[in-house]
């Protein structure tokens, strides 16, 4: 049982940066207490943003997914690694081109930022989670990088949680390209400080009044620590109590899931 004093400290924050996979849902299954948690955020006029390293879905698709789970959340409450990647590339080379390996979320984000698709001589090879991943795609990407395209990944996650286990994520998918070319990818998503700065700007809340809630020690928690934002690890996703000790840093708070933030306060 988590001490009431710990829950009070979490509840007293004004801004909440929440991961999605492993915190809000697993696959297509909403986690316990999430509906009550989101209702509490709204009723208490908390500032909140769902900050996800997944680049697969557009904001509209994420909205639709939560709506099917019984959650009505406006588009202003979402930000993805795909959007952050598009903003980064536009700041580096405006209206450039990219060989895009990813789904609708990444493709639309890059197009909306003024980028065009290019499989001949692109400025960048950009990798996100990709259902169309294949040997031919890897081979194409390797040769484009060897001919000067810069390699960018939407996030450094090795795996992501699913209802029945885990699935390989961007860092795992991009590693064959890195190994074959000898080039290291630049990853935009958490724990890159770019994502945290954008989240704080969206919230309009000081970092000391904000908390990041996530299920991963290697992205969510280290992102908060490096940005000097309080961190809350939930054990409803990737990390477990045992894996916490594998890292040199420690979250400020550890709870089983977001249900614990609201279950004793009905």
TrEMBL record:
It comes from the Bacteria. Transmembrane segments: none annotated. CDD domains: HAD_Pase_UmpH-like (cd07530). GO terms for cellular component: cytoplasm. PANTHER family: 4-NITROPHENYLPHOSPHATASE-RELATED, HALOACID DEHALOGENASE-LIKE HYDROLASE DOMAIN-CONTAINING PROTEIN 2. This is NagD protein. GO terms for molecular function: phosphatase activity.
